[in-house]
Amino acid sequence: MWSVPESETGRTEWPVSSPPPWPARVRATLWWHRSTAAGRELGKGSRIIPVTVAMMVDYLDSPVGPYREILASPVLRMPSRRIGPMPRMAVPFIAVDSEASVHGGRTHWQLPKVLARFDGTVLGNMAAQGDGWKVGSTVRAKGPRLPIAGALGFAQPEAAGGLAIASARLAGRFRYARVDVESEGTTLPSWLVAGSHRGIVITDGKMRTGPAKHR
User: Fold this and answer.
1) What is d(CA 12, CA 196) in angstroms, rounded to the nearest whole number?
2) Euclidean distance between CA atoms 134 and 150, whole angstroms
3) Which residues lie below 8 Å from residue 205, measured CB to CB, with a gap of 6+?
4) pLDDT tens digits, residue range 108-147?
5) Which domains does the chain have, with CATH numbers?
């Protein structure tokens, strides 16, 4: 499974999760920055948009119960006939605090989920920590809450050379924010850059992640 060292695990047995779609209520912090050379290297072999996107998510409910998550995409894949009309994330790093969610990510969407510990609140100060890595986010939201509706897309490389393509549709309310980020690990600091970045906070949202198509 395509991943960076921070999202690798030798464990193969996980509690079985239900198949998609997965509806959920969420709160989240998202931020982005220009991709570094290391980030662009992770995305080589495809047409890319050199923007790194990361997020901390608090799933208030889901088919596997409530859990928290961090994920990051070093670049975005350019729209094409193969992946569709919107840019899509390719995620080599993703961690959660739910064993059943690890199964769901790895089995249903080719997302290399691993277990992590989370402290704090996603709309304020949040820290995620696993074996040999840590990411922290401090949010400074500003401005009014505004409506948001749209989709997040994924295009995950598969071992046989194909892509697992899926979308998560979201509707809710958000605020603009600055997000101060800390990044530690074997590879994370080279492409998930520490510092202050533009972002948004989703103060309340409903999301539905559909099944993956294999292309």
Assistant:
1) 37
2) 30
3) 25, 26, 27, 28, 148, 170, 171, 172, 173, 174
4) 999 999 999 999 999 999 999 999 999 999 999 999 999 9
5) 20-214 (2.40.400.10)
- Please give the helix or strand (H or E) that residue 103 lies within, else none: helix 99-108
CB atoms < 10 A from the CB of 160, how many?
Answer: 6
Beta strands in 78-132 (DSSP E): 88-89, 93-96, 113-115, 117-120, 125-130
The token duo for 70 is 């961090």
The position carrying tokens 């103060």 is 203
159, pLDDT greater than 90: no
**For the segment 14-40, what is each residue's pLDDT rounded down to a tens digit?**
999 999 999 999 999 999 999 999 999
Amino acid letter at 184? E
Tokens of 200: 């948004």
Q: Buried (b) or exposed (e) across 172-202, using 16+ Cβ within 10 A?
A: bebbebebbbebebebbbbbbbeeebebbbb
What is the DSSP code (8-state) at residue 122? Answer: T
